[in-house]
Amino acid sequence: MLPVAILAGGLAKRLRPITETIPKALVDVAGRPFIEWQLDYLHQQGVRHVVLCLGYLGEQIEELIGDGRRFGLRVDYSHDGDRLLGTGGALRKALPMLGDAFFVFYGDSYLPIGFVDVEACFRAQGQPALMTVLKNGDRWDRSNVLFNEGRLIEYNKHAPSGDMAYIDYGLGVLSDDVLLGYPEGQAFDLAEVYHRLSLDGRLAGYEVFERFYEIGSHEGLKETEEYLIRGIEK
Domain named Nucleotidyl transferase: which ranges (predicted)? Predict the structure, then answer.
């Protein structure tokens, strides 16, 4: 199983005042810090190596999680340093820990999806990157992916067109070479990388049919907590 990079360095402004003194990954969700839910879930998926890309108050996450052994994982840490590097810059800095290909998702996401199947699709497609996509119709956020007959035609987070009915589900797979061309220490957005890859025909797509959950907003936090509690009660 490929290693997993979790992007958990943002300022989490939409969750304030909760995140004034703790990072988003440590927000309590159904009685546990959210990062613990994520790590348990990754272990269940067969993942064994996780790299946490940290920024805002990241030392609190490292202090709680440690080396990851209590989750059955090896957990390494990549800190942005004095200034936030953005999602792309954080991954670029973490490359030496990640190898030549890896999963990537966000520190505020809980994704009901089979990682084994996504990795198999990535290897079968032969592209340097893969994005999971969900037919969204602007339901959970503004749709930003043009996906047709199994082919990802364009991803555009910042200027989506009206014919885009799908959304980035939140789990991707990247080869290291798509980031090696960016200078280390430079801040940039992973969305820019995905957009460029899609226009070059180098971004594979994998369609998902179950919605994602996230704690990036107070509404999302409530929905995610309800979802996880339902899972506990089953």
Answer: 6-132
Q: How much is the pLDDT for 233? A: 59
DSSP three-state, residue 44: helix
213: which DSSP letter?
Answer: E
- Could you give the CA distance from residue 2 to residue 100 in angstroms, rounded to a whole number? 9
Q: Is the peptide bond before 17 cis (omega within 30 degrees of 0)?
A: yes
Predicted TM-score of the model (pTM)? 0.94
Give the tokens for residue 201. 């025909």
Domain locations in the chain as residue ranges: 4-233
- How far are the Cα atoms of 73, 121, 155, 161 from residue 150, in angstroms, in the given order? 33, 11, 14, 19
Task: For residues 12-22, give the mean pLDDT.
Answer: 81
Q: What percentage of residues in the chain have a pLDDT greater than 90?
A: 81
Question: Ramachandran region of residue 72, left (φ > 0), alpha (ψ -120 to 50) or beta?
Answer: left
Which runs of E-coded beta strand occur in the chain?
A: 4-8, 28-29, 32-33, 49-54, 74-79, 101-106, 109-110, 129-135, 145-148, 151-155, 166-175, 203-208, 213-214
Q: Which residue in 139, 168, 137 sits closest to 152, CA to CA? A: 168
Query: What's the mean pLDDT in 139-147?
Result: 87
Domain 4-233 has CATH 3.90.550.10: yes
pLDDT at 234 over 60: no
